[in-house]
Every structure is written in C-alpha cells, then in structure tokens.
Design goal:
The chain is globular. The chain has helices spanning 3-31, 46-72, 75-80, 85-116, 118-122, 126-149, 156-169, 184-199. 62% of the residues lie in helices and 0% in strands. The longest helix has 32 residues, at 85-116. α4 (85-116) packs antiparallel against α6 (126-149). It contains eight helices and no strands. It is mainly α.
Length: 246
C-alpha cells in the first residue's frame, strides 16, 4: 500500500468517520428518533430471535468494552500495573475470542432469520440487512486476526494499534505511519471498523442512544393500578350568576 493511500485510510478517514458518527447521531437523535426501528417481526421465529439477539448484544457489548479499554488505555498505565504486553495480548485473544464467537453466532442467527423467512424479509429494509452483514463480516475478520496475533505474542503489534488509536484521538499527525506495515487482515479490520462508525447514524444501530440508563438516576416513584373507587374531588363552587325574575 502506498504511503499516500495508507495516510488517507488510517490518517484522514478516521476523522471523517468520527465526525459523521457524532454529528449524524446528534442530528438524528434530535430530529428523528422515531425512525430508528425496523418493521415488527417479534412474533415470527421468536426463539431464534431471542437466542440471536441475546448472543449478539452480550457479545458486542463485551467486544466494545474490550476494545475501548485495550486501545485507549495508555501503555504506561499497563506498565505501572505490572501487566506485560504478552499477558494483555493473551487476555485480549481469549476474552475477545469468546465474545466474538458469541456475537458471530448471534448475528448469524439474526441474519438467517431476516434473510430466509419471507415474511420477515418483506418487512426488512436494505439498511436492516446491510448492517447485519457488515457486522458479520467485521466479526469474521476480527476472529481471523486471532491466529495471526498468536504468531507474535510479544505484544509489539498490539502496542502499535494502541498508539495509533490514541494518536488519532490526540490529533497526532503521524499516527497512520504506525500501522503502515501491519498484516493486511488487521488493516481491513480497522477499515471496516471505522466504516461501521461512518454508517452508524443511518442504521438501526443508533438505538443504542435510546438505552434507558437515565432511569437509574430518576426520582423514585411508582405507578399503581387499583380497582378501588377513588373519591372524586367536589366540584368547585363559585358565585352563581344572578337569575332574573320570570
């Protein structure tokens, strides 16, 4: 890959993807929250949907948490805690592998259900299917990086990705050069990962912003239904208008 193309894909493209991700999510959240849904199909192949949805959501949350902590925690923090690069890489491979397989199976179940049931396919938009397939390909690539990572357990490649991700967030101009010589499967995995962020505001993935986490901090109250008759408040009595004589 030429230096110019490498810089465009891993130096400029991350900022394009992050800008669209943040601004697009904000605009869609503010103007069209009711559009992040798909046609209801919950009564069709319900068991397959439950298994697929649970495996997908548990897996994707674990993967996101692992990538967030693993890529954005400064190397100096791991060194100060006495965590070696080899141990961190083995932990990432094992934890990420289990979470990735769970998520991969979940997406496969959801994609199969949406593609091969004619009634569900009829209520599915292009975006519903495309994002499932994109995530499935991205997960496949992520799982394929595990045997490649096993060939260099010194953690050198992992440190490159950590430094690259932190360099992008801190606006380091030479961040793209850090991943110039990594294995092509890692590069493709990075590119597709950024593409997921790019298309995020235009897909159902935006429903993550509707997660009711604010319920944990709301004032306590309880809505109670009752069959008891509630005494009605008497009607307000005010001065009656004067009536004339017949």
């Amino acid at each position: 890959m030429s230096p110019w193309l490498n810089n465009a894909l891993y130096g400029w493209y991350p900022y394009v993807a992050l800008t669209v991700f943040l601004l697009g999510s904000l605009l869609r959240f503010d103007h069209s929250q009711y559009t992040w849904r798909s046609g209801s199909s919950q009564l069709l192949r319900r068991r397959q949907m439950l298994w697929g949805s649970n495996l997908f959501h548990v897996g994707i949350l674990a993967i996101f948490a692992g990538h967030f902590v693993g890529l954005l925690t400064p190397v100096a923090v791991f060194d100060a805690l006495g965590i070696s690069h080899t141990f961190k890489q083995l932990l990432a491979m094992s934890f990420g592998g289990v979470a990735g397989i769970a998520c991969w199976i979940g997406i496969a179940l959801l994609a199969h259900r949406r593609l091969f049931d004619p009634r569900i396919r009829a209520t599915s938009s292009f975006g519903d299917i495309a994002i499932l397939l994109l995530l499935w390909v991205q997960l496949t690539l992520g799982l394929l990086t595990i045997p490649v990572s096993a060939q260099h357990l010194d953690g050198g490649e992992m440190v490159k990705f950590m430094t690259w991700a932190q360099g992008i967030l801190t606006l380091h101009p030479g961040a793209a050069a850090l991943v110039a010589d990594v294995n092509p499967i890692f590069k493709l995995h990075l590119f597709l990962g950024m593409t997921v962020f790019l298309v995020f505001p235009f897909t159902r993935l935006v429903h993550v912003w509707s997660a009711p986490i604010w319920y944990f901090g709301r004032p306590g109250y309880q809505v109670v239904r009752t069959r008891r008759q509630i005494a009605r408040r008497p009607a307000a009595t005010g001065p009656q208008p004067a009536q004339g004589d017949d």
